[in-house]
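Follow-up to my post from last week.
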Amino acid sequence: MDFVHQHLPALVVALPLVTGLVTAMVGRRGAGWWIAMGSSAAVFALCAQLLANVAGGGSQSVTYLLGNWPIPYGIGLVVDPLNAAVLATVALIGCVVTLYARRSMAQEVPEDRSHFFWALWQFCQVGLLGITITGDAFNFYVLLEISSLSTYTLIAMGKGRDRRALTAAINYLVIGSIGACFYLLGVAYLYMVTGSLNMADIHARLQDIFATWGTDAPVYRKTVIAGFAFIMVGLSLKLALFPLHLWLPNAYTYAPAAVTALLASTATKVGAYGFIRVIYTVVGPDFAWRYLHSDYILMICAMMAILGGSLMAIRQVNVKKLLAYSSIGQIGYIALGIASDNVYGLQAAIIHIFNHALTKGAMFMAVGCVLYRVGGVRLEHLRGLGRKMPLTMAAFTIGGLGLIGVPMTAGFVSKWYLVGGTLERGWMGAAGVVLVGSVLALVYTWRCIESIYFGKREEGAPEVREAPLSMLVPTLLLAVASLYFGMDSRLTSDISAQAAHFLLGVRP
Amino acid sequence: MTINDIPPGVVLLVAAAILPFVSGKARWVVALAAPIIAMADGWVAISDAWAADAAGSARYISQWQFMGLTLRPVFVHAPTAVFATIFCLMVAGGSLYALNQNRRFELAAAMVYAGGALGCVFSGDLISLFVFWEIMTLGSTTILWCARTEGSYRAGLRYFALHAVGGVLLLAGIALHVGQLVGQGHPDPLAFTHYSQMVEGWTSFGWHNAGLWLMLVGMLVNAGAPPFSAWIGDAYPEATESGTVFLSAFTTKTAVFTLMVAFAGVEVLVYLGLWMAVYGIIYAILENDMRRILAYSIVNQVGFMLVGIGVGTKLSIDGAAAHAFAHIVYKALLMMSAGSVLYATGRRKCTQLGGLYRTMPITMWCGIIGALAISSFPLTSGFTTKSMILTGITEQAGAMAIAGQSHDHLIAAWFILEAASAGVFLHAGIKFPWFVFFNKDSGLRPADPPWNMRAAMILFAGLCLMLGMFPGPLYAILPYAAEAADYANVIYNFEYLLSMLALLLFSGLAFFVLLPLLKRSETLTLDTDWLYRRFFPRLWKDVLMPIVRGLEAAQKVVLENLPGKPLSGEPRSPLARLGTEWAVSVPVFVISAMLLIYLLMYFVILPNG
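User reply:
Got it. Predicted complex:
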């Protein structure tokens, strides 16, 4: 066990990488799911252990040297309160969705592709976990591409049900590659001036450069700022922050149900994490917020995301797409928390990364159950399902209440902190937008609930049963968890407070 | 976890969860045991708090930590004892009255409703208050819908819409207020307590007290203060016989409780209360539906309480609390009496009733006792409580006169309330029993209702008389028990008895003299509810809809010229095309534009760039 403890951070990435390769090589013998399930459960255990270590060890970051190469020459994996929380979120969702995905995938992806599916499924998680744990800016890019490339393929696998999945995947490929390129360009600019790729090292060297800017001879000013602009745009794309969200709705709508649940709860969340990481620990908030005032751009984008995403969600008839647009709005909440630059706001962002992963995960999984049983997810397919699939629909409804932010659901906790953070920052308008967003969420959630509980199934429509147990249990698990964390928020608020203090404490 | 950690309201909520699934004897046991257990639970907390007061220690009964905030779902305010007691009594009496109903959900809904009200009374923080407040709205709306008539469905929708708005106002007020306190580093921002800054500062509107103003307005919606008075007369008479009995008790009185805790002494309440006292009488006199008459008189009586709270001296607050207690009893009694008539005859309108004294003696006598009590006839509960408010006003006026302050508004208030007292006797004291039980013979010969309804009425009638003759136990649990005890020594003095009797007898004389004018015609009286019955629907249909339609056309023209082709043939409205199917060139263009915006911002717009 000593070995495991010593190499925890490396194992988190290495384990699914190895098992993913094994899955691809084993071939089509139906073993794919078992390997993926075992590996994701093990990864979750490892991440929970990491989180427990960090929570017990105070607000410190621990660096693990890959292959014992010293920083800045080798790649360092960093574990601190912030990314331990995100790692645990990603691993938890990965584990639960893998459990769910077996039946759902078997229906949507042809048998002869299943081993590729499960291999890509694990590579996607390798990428997401790796992005979160790495302390190296270039390594970040590599893992970003690993997760993105496997995501494009996973989305395209939805073509069996709807061929539009192919267009959605190719569009996302084009856009996502541009985003990754922008990020890489930005990192290259920073590398040019600092000569380092390690995040902590870049941060330290940038301080010397910033020090010259107040004088008559500023060094590398334009290079650093242009690099930062590229990084901001690149990461905004990954985060799907309005108006760079255009890839998201179709990708979520046409991907296989389980893939949508995985992406919605983890991929954009990791994007949000990248944002926090770059701004607060690489360039530093003094540069990003107080020197460049990017917080205002971010705030405006976030407000447009909340309003625009919700308004577009209201107009949808396809429930998957409705939820996708709602995700765009919810990402706005996270971005607003990041931009408000105080403990409350950051806590809101971190808590919402977790809470929204639970909520949206549960909802997309419930929609997947409907797809599995009914064969369609337009609003008319939902009619009368409150009687036919009561448990699935209960999970969906709980999730919907969470999106609105009803007290006793997880969504309320994040919104509470968010309103506190924006008010503390003095952004009354933004606080108002958050509240208006709740009303809009009420409207689009109500459209679904109305169909579910007050609609009637058409005469002669085929009989529908409750979803199979292996899909129902994970769905309910996340829904109940979102209720639990709405009522007992000690865990989330403690960890997020630790992370927020850690981030604001490392200010130069 | 001890019994002290269980909010008494939750006891009733648990009973509500059980009730729909039991029947027969078990149903009786649950419905009658729940209020008794809740009362015992409440009184454990109250006596603990009193003991803590006597010992001089903090009176926080139960504290929970939630997101770094302190919640106190079991907390004893000064008026908690009196309100908790009457709420539990009311649940017991109302349940007894309702037990022969075969509606499955009505009694459960009533328990939810009462549980919400009881929860509010024990809330020591604003979050608990809000949660229970909304539970109350859900419960009461469900009660309305349990009548299962078209009228009750529509009235329920209107009721729910208005109270949802009130709840949102309250929540917005709480959020703003708490947000400001957190910003100032207040140690206990969530505390639900007296906001003394509003006593002097209510006349100044501003950011500093906007939160408190919103909370005040949210509470006033539930109290039925103008311009929100119409919902009481609109909604309550649409419920079932037993449903109305419950509805008459909790919503307005919970609002009175919260106003008493938070905004005692805020002068604006005096004016609102006077308006309500007069408003209730005018509409009650114009009304024909017997339960609507009684509903309007709730507005009138709550007006008295608001005046007492607004004056804000110890005696007037005691008076308002005691009056709330007595009012719940006699209003429930009157509603039960009217409900029994409705139950027996199926008729609601005064013009269709009359002459029932022959066959419904118990209902008649109970109705008359309730009518005398609401008119504050000596030896009934109204006398010992309403007089307290009036005496509180005169004492405060005297004190202000000695201090050389302007006290004209108190003198005016006293006169208006005296006149309103006479008006109460007119519409509720004589008009209701006269037109229903006497007057012309309608030819109906119904019998008294089943024994449980009779028992509930007799119980409450006895309570009315007991409170009138022996007010001591009630006075002992009032917020300021010492002042109330002093007052008990002077209440039955000759002078006051004489003036009250004169007032009542002369208005009685006026009633019979003016009887021909008071004959009810079959009318529907429109009020400010005209706004949401007629005005808003019309505004939407005739003005706003056409504008939206017009804009949609303009939108269509713009959108159809935007780049991008739809990938699918899904039918959708023009707005839905915003952001759906795009050619891949569009996002690429947007990405470049975003980069441009960032670079412009960093290098051109910023002064240091």
